[in-house]
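Standup notes
- DV: blocked on the single-chain target, sequence here:
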Amino acid sequence: MGETRAGFVALIGEPNAGKSTLLNRMVGAKVSIVTHKVQTTRTRIRGVAIEGDAQIVFVDTPGLFRPRRRLDRAMVAAAWSGASDADVVVVMVEAHRGVTEGVEAMLDGLSERGGRGSVALAINKIDRVERPALLGLAAELNERFDFAETFMISAEKGYGVDDLKAWLAGEMPKGPWLYPEDQIADLPMRMIAAEMTREKLTLRLHQELPYQLTVETEGWEEREDGSVRIDQIVYVARDGHKGIVLGKKGETIKAIGQLAREEISAFLERKVHLFITVKVRPGWLEEAERYSEMGLDFSDGA
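- DV (later): unblocked, structure below
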């Protein structure tokens, strides 16, 4: 190995801009949860990618959007704190949506941020627009902010992702690697397991309960036969929500549990016994400890 490099990259963009998809493609494992429901990435999950002699640590920030509630405000603050700590910031913009109100706010935020390191522009979903429109958008954005580089990519299909990754590797500061080579994410396994269950709940119940639940992995027991027993609690804000999550005769939670178990098992590459309990905890959205467990600072939302 030659001279090693290692550093942090923050991906910022509006909800559904494709940050999680890009992260997963660069890291090569499903680290950040991808769903069709906006604003589902709550924790600043870090994925670690290796490119030659460089180690790139990704900070997958929450999508930036206009904050309405305490939780939203904490998420936006987390996104910006992630960006200010990073060696490189990658701003993701959706090609077919162009310069939206959210992109405007992001550009303003970047200008105010100052901070260290370079800022690159990644125009994502390039397969959705014609080339002239793409070039026009790139020109307009570069007029608004002095980006170090501009990349045209499709995170979903993989176009342009290798070029971006190679450039990021070159931008990392010289120094020792920050993580062991075999460690793809510094997020504890129990947190990934909770996030996988929460994804299944979100997909199944997104109309009835868009925001009102959280999942915690309470128990993690290694079995002698190589399997693992995982106990999780789903917290909801009201009694009525508990009924929705459980479903008729418990059918909903049973179906969700099966899907979550299969995915956690595939991720861990071992047999999983998953037990899920649903509990009502009024006002969990306002509980500070829930925020720290989600990687957010409660005071940011004050």
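- Follow-up: The chain has nine helices and nine strands.
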